[in-house]
Design brief:
The chain is mostly beta strands. About 5% of the residues lie in helices and about 35% in strands.
Length: about 450
């Protein structure tokens, strides 16, 4: 159904108003779309949104949670899952290192550590404790209240992004390749599977070592549960997939591979020195098997590229939708302002398309992203300035959906409730999680 048909089918005046003037407007750089209309200044000084939309702050860092621990700072990637009686279960990453004791769940002097099951933490040595991990929040959209919040994964570090699974859990990824040493008793750089449980608590942290050890960023799972795709937040990173030995059970082992473009051996998709991969171009994909995937020397990407894998510029957000996988490269393109790719696993190997390559005017440093109920992407910006949420249409046109003009902080964790009626997003440096409602089409 096209957009006009969608509006007619929904029949809401607010939705029709939101889409008024959707026609594309050509700019010198990326193509622009009007989207939901101009953003309105927020009297509360938090978040500007289009007419008809509003937000509620549902979590802040430093809050005391139901388990007696503190909600950690630096909320990052997250996903929303269905809970009982219309509740939404949010599992949220926290991007903290062992040095960030003031930002963690256990207090600045670790005075709350006794409230946690220390034996369930991944890294809880005498010298230091991983301050990252995940929190789980149970939210009632009807009342707008948080009913429960607790630490669900602990002792890990720099849990940046990840992805929801069809088996009802969140794959939480460590953006770290730190080795055991002064503040650590274990090597880091792993993925952890965190069930989205309403009445759960801190799980026993078990690394999914078959998914490789590298600077993990995000993950997405195929509908048949047999493949996990992953991004790597490195300037010379790769795009990975893990073929699971048992669908839906990554702990049972996997065959790890990296994406390659047969037409461009050892391709450089970053386009930093001129465009070798034009916007809109589609390339056939092949996959290269990787060895020694535990990579104690943090050289997995280097060996993979030498074997023919393509390079990507800081792969970050990754989300599945409409039979495709969309991912962002934060510093890709000649302006190093970000790229958005679409991978479609059709045929042998699949196909890769560069959808967007930003010049910085409409999108600055694409990071976390999600697929909206109406088929567009919503992309979080990650700069040291004021960041926004940018819409991307299926044909690559861009429009602003939200803007934080009040705090220089990246946005992270954009995701929709299962019914599509609420959009959640984090303002990382302020430690805030917002629930946004309004005339979302398709909900």
């Amino acid at each position: 159904m096209d957009r006009r048909g969608l509006i007619k089918g929904i029949g809401g005046a607010a939705v029709a108003s939101a889409f008024a003037g959707w026609q594309r407007v050509h700019a010198d750089g990326p193509v622009a779309a009007e989207g939901f209309g101009p953003l309105r200044p927020d009297p509360g000084g938090i978040f500007d949104l289009p007419e008809g939309f509003g937000y509620r702050i549902i979590a802040r860092d430093g809050e005391t949670m139901a388990d007696g621990l503190l909600r950690p700072a630096r909320p990052d990637g997250m996903a929303a899952f269905p809970g009982p009686d219309g509740r939404v279960v949010l599992v949220c990453n926290h991007e903290n290192s062992p040095e960030d004791t003031g930002n963690g769940a256990f207090g600045s002097e670790l005075e709350r550590l006794q409230k946690a099951h220390r034996d369930r933490l991944f890294d809880a040595g005498d010298a230091g404790i991983g301050q990252g991990g995940t929190t789980t929040l149970v939210y009632d959209p009807g009342s707008g209240l948080v009913e429960r919040q607790f630490l669900s994964l602990g002792g890990t570090e720099r849990n940046c992004a990840g992805g929801p699974t069809p088996w009802g859990s969140w794959l939480s990824c460590e953006e770290s390749v730190a080795r055991a040493g002064a503040l650590r008793t274990r090597d880091h750089g792993w993925v952890f599977d965190v069930p989205a449980q309403v009445d759960g608590g801190l799980i026993e942290a078990q690394p999914l070592t078959a998914l490789g050890r590298f600077n993990h960023e995000a993950a997405a799972v195929s509908a048949d549960r047999a493949v996990i795709y992953m991004t790597e937040d490195r300037g010379d990173g790769l795009f990975y997939r893990a073929l699971l030995a048992e669908p839906g059970n990554p702990a049972a082992g996997a065959r790890l591979q990296a994406l390659a473009l047969p037409e461009l051996p050892r391709a450089d998709t970053r386009n930093w020195n001129g465009s070798r991969l034009p916007v809109g171009a589609t390339r056939r994909v092949a996959w290269i098997d990787l060895e020694r995937t535990d990579a104690p020397e943090d050289d997995l990407r280097i060996r993979g590229h030498a074997a023919g894998a393509a390079l990507f510029a800081r792969g970050e957000g990754l989300w599945a939708g409409d039979g495709a996988f969309y991912f962002a490269c934060t510093s890709g393109g000649p302006a190093e302002m970000g790229q958005v790719f679409r991978y479609t696993p059709e045929g042998e190997g699949g196909q890769l398309e560069l959808m967007v390559e930003s010049d910085g005017r409409l999108l600055r440093n694409a990071d976390n992203l999600t697929v909206a109920p109406w088929g567009d992407l919503l992309v979080c910006e990650d700069t040291d300035d004021h960041c926004g949420l940018i819409g991307v249409t299926p044909d690559g046109a861009l429009y602003p959906f939200a803007r934080n003009l009040y705090t220089p902080s990246e946005l992270a964790g954009a995701c929709f409730a299962p019914d599509g009626r609420t959009l959640f997003v984090n303002i990382q440096k302020r430690g805030l999680t917002l629930a946004i409602t309004g005339p979302f089409p398709g909900a």
